[in-house]
Amino acid sequence: MLAVVIISWNVRELLRGCLRSLAAQNVGPLRIIVVDSASSDGSAMMVRDEFPWVELEALTENIGYVKGNNLALRRLLADLHPPEFVWLLNPDTIVQPGAAATLLAFMREHVRCGLCGPQLRNPDGSLQHGAFALPGLAQLAIDVIPRLQARLRDTSLDGRYSAQQYAGGPFRIGSPLGAAMLVRTAAIREIGLLDEGFEMYCEELDWAHRMADANWEVWCEPRASVTHFGGASSAQASARAERLKWRSRRRYYDKHYHFIARAIAHALIPARFRAL
Fold first, then answer.
1. Residue 77 domain-assigned?
2. Phi–psi pair at 82, nearest 5 degrees
3. How far is CA 134 from the centre of its chain?
4. Mean pLDDT of 86-106
5. In-domain check, residue 248
6. How many structural domains comprise the chain?
7. Which CATH number is 98's domain given?
8. What is the pLDDT of residue 230?
9. How confident is the model at residue 264 (pLDDT cuts 50, 70, 90)?
10. Quick check: is 169 in a domain?
């Protein structure tokens, strides 16, 4: 069985579209948990009224993206018959026809794949980078040095994969974008839940890194397509989201790299974010 976990905050109309697209997927038993983080736009009421078969966890406070996912994951893992796979899906996505079935078929054929992402598309149908190499210092430097950014943004040095790779079959990656990542329950049991030290941003990189350390494979299955609007929740608190992004990046480098790389990473982080 497939379970889908969606963390939502004040994106009612996008959430409605996401749930409708999931309802149209032909994958057999499908369990969906929506964790609503104290939305004020009627999201919870919409789910109750229009999707009564969806499990709703209506919170009275916004506990953040990572804690919200872990809340749902703990519930699923504690079940007598837990799902074989869990799809962490953002509410600002539209799952294209057949995407869920394609991802499940791939995961069942590749038993060492612990984490898999689909091909992401922008609302206009253009390619959106939805898979990345695990970040080294080059990606960080490109992000903060304008001259490098102008020349090297969206290249392999920036951790991106080419459009030609997305046009072919499945390929190994460092990490999928967290907007739509399918995880094997057995892998979660081995490496643990998302690290709640990452309130938002970099939690998928950390998970993928831990997967690789435990010899689980991470893939992109581009024959499965998901439209991703992007940034719908974080845009509502953009200044805070920017602070969280840099705090999470620092935590990621501190957690996974040796002291020299950590020191260089800290030096590259913009000064106003170093003390966060």
1. yes
2. -70, 155
3. 14
4. 98
5. no
6. 1
7. 3.90.550.10
8. 84
9. confident
10. yes
The total of other beta-carbon atoms located within 10 Å of residue 172's CB is 11
**Cα R_g (the chain), whole angstroms:** 18
The band of 139, judged by pLDDT with boundaries at 50, 70 and 90, is confident
pLDDT tens for 8-63 read: 999 999 999 999 999 999 998 899 999 999 999 999 999 999 999 999 999 999 99
Q: Is residue 254 part of a domain?
A: no
| C-alpha dist (Å) from residue 96 to 47, 119, 232 | 21, 10, 19
Any bridge partners for residue 2, and if so which?
Answer: 30, 85
- HEC readout, the chain: CEEEEEEECCCHHHHHHHHHHHHCCCCCCEEEEEEEECCCCCHHHHHHHHCCCCEEEEECCCCCHHHHHHHHHHHHHCCCCCCCEEEEECCCEEECCCHHHHHHHHHHHCCCEEEEEEEEECCCCCEECCEECCCCHHHHHHHHCHHHHHHHCCCHHHCECCHHHHHCCCEECCEECCCEEEEEHHHHHHHCCCCCCCCCCCHHHHHHHHHHHCCCEEEEEEEEEEEECCCCCHHHHHHHHHHHHHHHHHHHHHHHCCHHHHHHHHHHCCHHHCCC
Domain that holds residue 117: 2-134+161-233
Residue type, 169: G
- Per-residue confidence (pLDDT) for residue 72, from 0 to 100: 98
Q: What is the pLDDT of residues 231-262, one digit of tens each?
A: 655 555 577 788 888 888 888 888 998 888 88
Asked whether the beta carbons of 24 and 97 are under 8 A apart, the reply is yes
